[in-house]
């Protein structure tokens, strides 16, 4: 995991308290008040959220326009950064890319700014590393790592296979784990430790999943 890990019951309780307050940001809908090259400020309830988005989306909206984005909050030791996506499948691709060693959130966003999810899937399936090398910051070695890490985890038609959470509750737990900096591989491994008869609520399942990392 990149960032901070918490251990012990008291700290897990504190962690969950924080998650319920700010980390469960799966989507955002509000008015655009500021537009930069790679981010928007979206106002919700009088609060402006800085949301980094793939290009060319910032050029496609105007100040005062309402937008709805799927989001992922990435936590680092010194920062909380919110990433937003106009297309739901972009979130899944983004999470998969974050699981590749050497690919951080900014580079993953740059990949999604350069290529569509369909193009990324085809590049992985057909081992077209040159498509990834078209992205600023991606060299031959990184392109190869992306393909090696993700081949078999995407399909041309559906985009994701066994990496899809089995339920909506598990999807929320996975998003919470991703927000804490765990890769999608780590999150999936933690989800598999949750008993089938565990209560169908995010709070309980998240606490169980976090025990996997303690």
Describe the structure.
With 214 residues, the chain is an alpha+beta fold. It has three domains: 11-85, OB fold (Dihydrolipoamide Acetyltransferase, E2P) (Beta Barrel); 88-150, Orthogonal Bundle (DNA polymerase, domain 1); 165-212. The chain is built from ten helices and five strands. The protein has helices at residues 9-23, 57-60, 88-98, 105-114, 117-125, 129-132, 140-150, 168-179, 184-191, 202-211, and strands at 27-35, 39-44, 47-52, 66-76, 79-85. A hairpin with a 2-residue loop joins strand 2 and strand 3. Residues 1-9 and 157-166 have low confidence and may be disordered.
Structure in a nutshell:
The chain has 214 residues and is α+β, with helices and mostly antiparallel strands. It has ten helices and five strands; from the N terminus they run αβββαββαααααααα. The chain has helices spanning 9-23, 57-60, 88-98, 105-114, 117-125, 129-132, 140-150, 168-179, 184-191, 202-211; strands at 27-35, 39-44, 47-52, 66-76, 79-85.
């Amino acid at each position: 995991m990149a960032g901070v890990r918490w251990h012990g019951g008291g700290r897990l309780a504190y962690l969950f308290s924080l998650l319920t307050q700010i980390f469960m940001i799966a989507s955002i809908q509000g008015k655009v008040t500021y537009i930069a090259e790679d981010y928007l400020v979206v106002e919700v309830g009088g609060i402006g959220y800085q949301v980094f988005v793939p290009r060319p989306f910032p050029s496609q909206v105007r100040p005062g326009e309402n937008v709805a984005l799927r989001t992922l909050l990435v936590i680092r030791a010194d920062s909380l950064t919110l990433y937003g996506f106009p297309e739901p499948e972009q979130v899944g691709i983004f999470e998969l890319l974050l699981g590749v060693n050497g690919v951080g959130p900014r580079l993953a966003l740059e990949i999604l700014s350069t290529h569509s999810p369909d193009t990324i899937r085809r590049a992985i399936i057909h081992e077209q590393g040159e498509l990834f090398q078209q992205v600023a910051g991606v060299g031959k070695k990184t392109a190869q790592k992306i393909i090696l890490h993700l081949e078999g985890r995407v399909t041309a038609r559906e985009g994701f296979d066994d990496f899809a959470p089995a339920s909506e509750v598990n999807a929320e737990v996975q998003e919470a784990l991703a927000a804490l900096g765990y890769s999608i591989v780590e999150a999936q491994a933690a989800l598999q430790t949750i008993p089938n008869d565990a209560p169908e609520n995010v709070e309980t399942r998240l606490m169980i999943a976090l025990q996997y990392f303690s």
